[in-house]
Structures
1.
Amino acid sequence: MNEFSLLIDGKAHAGRGAFGVINPATGQVFAQCPRADAALLDAAVAAAKAAFPSWARTPAAERARLVHALADALESRSDEFARLLTAEQGKPLGQAYYEMMASVGTLRTFADMTIEPRILRDDANGTVIEHRTPLGVVAAITPWNFPVILLMNKVGPALVAGNTMVVKPAPTTPLTTLLFGELCRDILPAGVINIICDENDLGGLLTSHPDIAKVAFTGSTATGRKVMQSAATGIKRVTLELGGNDAAIVLDDVDVQEVAGKVFHGAMLNAGQICVAVKRAYVPAALYDPFCDELARLAEAMVVDEGTRQGAEIGPVQNRAQYEKVKEFLADASANGKVIAGGEALDRPGYFIAPTIVRDLPRDARIVQEEQFGPVLPVLAYDDLDSLIDEVNASDYGLAGTVWGQDRQRALAVAMQIDSGTVWVNQHMAIDPSIPFRGSKQSGLGGELGEAGLHEYTQAHIVNMAA
Ligand code: NAD
């Protein structure tokens, strides 16, 4: 196994001590991760600050060339990255490859974007030009469910716009980020990207650091709140991509088998650990029984195994804390509803949970109201579509959601009423780096991806010249 290093000012750094990284499929430590301390954090921020003026002045075309070079390097080592991703995150290898290729695509999409100045006025009164300037040092903080793609969503726009970065991955999935650091070390000028790792103890220091201009954060709503508070002192820019409790609304004209399959996979992919996974499904009362039965059949048929095993469809939950949390949800599910598939942890090493379908729950059950972030789907019946829309919108979250129906106009009309950043109709997780993605309500602030996502790493600068 590779020796991993932090990246500070273009140099590999052994850190101040190390901590073990656990393979969630075995529950055993398989690698050591170097850890930073407050002094190394300061050094990383200082390096990013020192690198900023020259990187910001580097012609945009040259910055784009280097981001393309990162994408090419990532692609050429995607096999190694995917294996490491499966080892630290747990997802099946095929899904790890998919994350790698999507990451490459995201970098390329941003590298191909340009930020043109806009002439807001050019007449007898004068000339007004709006152009966009980089912000400075961006702190990028990522979670453990998609450690690579969620980092590239930040690296692509931040670098293309001319910012420098300090990156901090989640402590349970730091290794693919450190491996990416090796590519950065070879390709980028020193200090443009710096990577530090912690054991959940340096986030606050990073977000409150006076030399950080912006915090790009993906993680839970609870931590997002802390990030916002800590950024307040310096009026730092923040982008928060937070939690969700996305609903799948099934309309009464669907083909049950087909749509149950799509809803099921939308709930179970990545062992349900996706911000935009289906976290509650609503089905018309008339279709409720056959729909639940089909979901249960699919859950029972799912191959749950180590991500490296041929044929594995669903891997373990990523870490012990989340595993314990999902088990609490399972206890709540069996106490308050009817578990028709799964319902328990598997009796084997690692953090495996059987894909679980629960029906006949009260509307206010914890498993319906909260984000489970595991392979567990509550299914509820409804009679009246208008009151269902109100019920779905009553959540504090508003990340995404899906609507399923053969009558496209009716499905569209329902989608238009859902209070969330994205609603997919008759498809799920059609995430595209050129399309903006953002949460409403407590699911986020600002957004990533698309041109709007690039603009989040800039500020508008107005030059107003007399005629
Ligand atoms: P988390 O909030 O526990 O941790 C996320 C990151 O924040 C980690 O790197 C962690 O070390 C760091 N952190 C911890 N304390 C901090 C602090 N005080 N200040 C700054 N950073 C701190 O989230 P998680 O459990 O790793 O991830 C799961 C959550 O992420 C879920 O709620 C999920 O919905 C959400 N998520 C959202 C999106 C999105 O795009 N909206 C995408 C993926 C995941």
2.
Amino acid sequence: MDYLLEAKEVVKRYGNYTALDHVSLAVPKGCIFGLLGPNGAGKTTFIRIINQITAPDEGSVFIKGERLSREHIYDVGYLPEERGLYRNMKVGEQALYLAQLKGLSRAEATKRLHGWFAKFGIDSWWNRKVSELSKGMQQKIQFVVTVLHKPGLLIFDEPFSGFDPINAQLLKDEILELKKQGATIIFSTHNMASVEEICDEIALINKSKKILDGKVEDIRRNFSDNIYEVALYSDPERMAALASQVDILEENPCDVPGLFTLKVKMNAGAGHGNPMLETLMRYGEVKDFSEKLPSMNDIFIQTVKQAENEK
Ligand code: ADP
């Protein structure tokens, strides 16, 4: 597997407190990787290490197989959660300044910035002072500045906070487009719906330790609790018989005569996959049958609670 970023047994201590405890992560090239965890878990500390704002006490980090060094700074774009622009500077002037810090020439930065401003329909902001922009508008500028130098690795910390749904969608689409163009993206958030929507893989950190990682799809499948949504043409008699085979968790009202829409949990005797479907077919005509995988939100809560109980 081709990894853009690998962290091996990373340890970070602040005095007596261990903020990262032997954390190993591997982020495949070209994926959107969710870095998840409760407040205080150590996510920002890990991101700061990748950005070389701070250094690990033990362990090592590799980008494209090379040990992390100063040269990599230009290949990383970081949008921190706590973001600030100079309030009294003009938007264009400030964006140009920040772009040049990331190694772009003034001419190239000007060209690219005008391209992004046109794309977002914000050309008229160029000569306005930052203090005249709303928080969401400032975040848009910061997003542009983060991606402008086309780094191979992009790190977004809660990128959608402070955005209205329309602008959050705009940003989501841009993030997916950047992935399409080949960028690798690390994305830290508490919004599990957006994780399901855009992340390919995740790592869950709790109290300085990694407690879960892998592909979102595999994780949801591994946490499957055998719950299915079913629509079945049947009758009350056969439905009563079905209830001895499966746990009917919910029966939703349905206008169509003879159609029962249910949420069921199959017990062990009902089998898995096709055998489970066969069980249902004995009690009616199956119109719809789909597994209801647990949400990332449920998995997050369950895994963190379990880790707490194991202590
Ligand atoms: P997260 O981003 O997951 O919310 P952080 O990485 O910010 O977590 O923090 C992890 C822990 O490390 C917290 O308990 C925090 O107080 C502590 N910490 C972070 N930075 C410092 C620092 N510079 N000095 C001392 N403790 C710190």
